[in-house]
Write a structure and sequence with these properties.
The complex is a heterodimer of chains A (111) and B (115). With 111 residues, chain A is mainly beta. Chain A has strands at 4-7, 10-14, 19-25, 32-38, 45-51, 56-59, 62-67, 72-77, 86-92, 100-101, 105-110. Classes of the chains: A mainly beta (111), B mainly beta (115). Chain A binds chain B through residues 31-32, 34, 36, 38, 42-46, 49, 89, 93, 95-104, and chain B through 31, 33, 41-45, 48, 50, 55-56, 58, 91, 95, 97, 100-104, 106-109.
């Protein structure tokens, strides 16, 4: 089955800097790659997603890139703000409605 | 924006007891899911449900677990005989999924504590 690896587990950046979180997946059939943000004690919420027919997608300060050949995908947050502090999860789905999550990255944005 | 609602928010039970966690998915969604998250760990897939039957399930979802859509609005997860290691936050989710896999809308979760 699908396995998603995520790095780093913790990331600390200065406000205004960029943050990059990287994930790899194992199942070449995976075709949907969402990113979820989870604030402390809250539910995970989708922040951006990408499908396998697209290499890059951007939404304001957030962008995601996908390299299908290498089975890598990454989240890029530019101009980070304190409210970006949260746990970020990457995930992958083969289209079988079984979304598998990475272990999460705890992002700290220092003011 | 419509939300997935879950009840109760907290459930404390004795080991060996049965628990039922309840969820009301977003009304026009077609796929329903249960995930769990042990404190500080990843969100783990348990089961997906479509058209009144299980679509996919994980190794975690063994014979002690079952799901049901008893009426047109509720979606339940039953754990027949709880174990200490079942203690976790259980999230229900739903998705519209009319054109393949789409974003999951999570409920606020039920924190299950097995003593």
């Amino acid at each position: 089955g699908e396995n998603v690896e995520q790095h780093p587990s913790t990331l600390s950046v200065q406000e205004g800097d960029s943050a990059v979180i990287k994930c790899t997946y194992s199942d070449s059939a995976s075709n949907y790659f969402p990113w979820y943000k989870q604030e402390l004690g809250k539910r995970p919420q989708l922040i951006i997603d990408i499908r396998s027919n697209v290499g890059e997608k951007k939404d304001q300060r957030i962008a995601v890139t996908l390299n299908k050949t290498a089975k890598h995908f990454s989240l890029h947050i530019t101009e980070t703000q304190p409210e970006d502090s949260a746990v970020y999860f990457c995930a992958a789905d083969t289209g079988g409605f079984k979304t598998i999550f990475g272990a999460g990255t705890r992002l700290f944005v220092k003011a | 924006e419509p939300e997935v609602t879950q009840t109760p928010s907290h459930q404390v039970t004795q080991m060996g007891q049965e628990v039922i966690l309840r969820c009301v998915p977003i009304s026009n969604h077609l796929y329903f899911y249960w995930y769990r998250q042990i404190l500080g760990q990843k969100v783990e897939f348990l089961v997906s449900f479509y058209n009144n039957e299980i679509s996919e399930k994980s190794e975690i979802f063994d014979d002690q677990f079952s799901v049901e859509r008893p009426d047109g609005s509720n979606f339940t997860l039953k754990i027949r005989s709880t174990k200490l290691e079942d203690s976790a936050m259980y999230f229900c989710a739903s998705s519209e999924a009319r054109q393949g896999v789409e974003k999951l809308f999570f409920g606020s979760g039920t924190q299950l504590s097995v003593l």
